[in-house]
Sequence to fold (722 residues):
Amino acid sequence: MDPLKNSAAETDVKLHFLDYWRIIRIRKTIILTVFLLVVFTTVFVTMFLQRQYCGNARIRIQEDRTGTVFTENQNGFIYNPYFMETEMKVMKSQAVLDKVIESQGLNAAWGQKYANGQTLTTAETRTILEKLLDLRPVRNTALIDIFFYSEDPNEAARIANEVANVYRDYRLKQQTDQIMSNITSMEKGYKDKGEEVRKAQEKVDQLRKNLAISDLDAMNSASTSTLDTETLRRLESQRIEAEILLGKERSLLNDLTNKTAIELRNVIPTAAPDPLLHSYLVDLGQAENKLKSLLKDFGPQSPEVQRVTATVDDLTQKVNDRINGILVGLRAKVDADQAALNILTAEVNKAKTSDTERGSKNRPYYDAKAKLEELQNFARIMKMKIETEYVSLNLPKSKLVEITDKCDPTTLKPVKPNRKLNIALGVIVGLMVGVGLAFFIEYLDTSVKTIDDIERALQSPVLGVIPQNVGRLMDEGAESPHAEAYRVLRTNLLFSRKDEKLNSVAVVSAGAGEGKSTTIFNLATVFAQSGQRVVIVDSDLRRPSLHKFFRVANNLGLTNYLLKQNTLEEVIQPSSIPTLDFMASGKLPSSSMGILSSAAMKNLITELKARYDFVFFDSPPIMGVSDASILASEVDMTIQVIQYRRYPQPMNIRAKQLIEKVGGHLMGIVLNNINMAQDESYYYYSGYYHEYYSKNEDEAEAGKPALPKSKASARRADAPKA
Fold:
């Protein structure tokens, strides 16, 4: 699988908070530099900015309610945002600002200030005034704050107050002019309307005279009724009453006609009360009761029974006769009422005809009279409106625009620049810009930063992590804290090889300056200090540097042997460590650039593997020349050195691909030049070791027994490291 594709597929990883903190710690120099630059710039600019004062006058405004002085709640405040916004625009209009400029003489004064003594035009002065003037409404009130900024506190207060005064005078004059214009217009209209009323009155009088209309209220009302109309109304009322009464009587008569004699005897006393019938009914009732009582004691042939029976029959006949008489009387009354209704109906129809004829004749008069009343009413309304406008004109208008607070120049303090706010913003902005720049640079930086970057991008294990400022372990000694990092590398390398016969190692890197030579020198030193016979071959023929580590000359070495100028014993040099030997690169003739791919080089590798426990080959950058690829294909194991935050990941990935393409056996990666103090991600690679050795040193100084250095070194060297 292509590691480059793997890295692209696995770059979408979630970041932990510690990853952000790591970036901040690593880029703290950039953050601090940008932060201090922004803060110092802000402080410097703030200290040298010209101080400005703000004059503040406050006014209370109301809408113009001319003509509504007699309405209820005329002084009640209703917040109108459109009115407030409109009036603020008016305050910054040419009509107001030009008067302020004129009254304060700002053309000349600001000409001295802004135009080197040349008098400004009113338009130029107005532009400056608009920029320095600020209007702000007080929320949900009728108050407006007028702010004016100036370097002179007296000028700031004076112009703020003048804007308030000029706007107040402008509103009062505008209202007064409007009222006078309304009065003039209405007086002219009232005069014209009076002439129309006079002509309409003359027409009404002429029509009343020509038509011989008897209208006692003709001068005041056009709605007076005529005699025919009143008669018609009275007759119509009587007709309706007669019709209602006739209907009731006819209904009663029809109801009584359909009842039996017994039912009539019970209903008529209530429906048509009659004293005589009532007397008969009472006597009949008493006689019937007496008859019933006698029949209990006597028989029908009894004289007393017969006498009472005759009385009952007589009274019954009288009752029936009386009921018939009442019914006859009701019929006669219905007929009489019907005749009266017919007469009234005829009279009503006659009155209607007469009223219609008279109304048609007199209609021009009443129309003219209605027109007269309409004109008179309109004239009265106009007169009242004129009087209202005069009242409004004479009312005090101080409430239209009221200056509630004037600006006192003695109380003004500088408002610009706001040093505390500017410095606070500078601190915040500097911190944000610094952190943002750090993260942006980190985003652009595609170099290797963590072990996870290597394992995710290269799909190879990390054999060791080497800190910064590592020197020659020969000088630092076996107990050096840096030596432990190489012992970890040595242990991981030994455990990574699958066969103990694999003992030749080439150290390569993608680019120059990644620490190959230092890594191979110190790693070989650690192997030699553990008692193994080791030789280092400087096969970087173009820019050799290992002879400087051993502090020997580079006159004799690998090239001399490969060109058969010297024997192997002559080109191998001993070192201060008995088990560590060194073969310099020697001088490379320009005609022998491909010498590493020769058979002599392969024989040399075979010979050295037989003589030594481990053979280490230094090499040039694999991306620059082919020498490193040749070595990787000829040795048993290859280690790739990657310097922390130096080259982009694609370059390191391509270096690994080159090793694999030539058949090299890549054992793993060495991450070099780590700043342990700066990057907390690598603390556990060195922190424990430092604490452990510092503790041993303290115990030794306190007189406690400690392991000999040689034994301690051997144990640490042999102990496996994760």
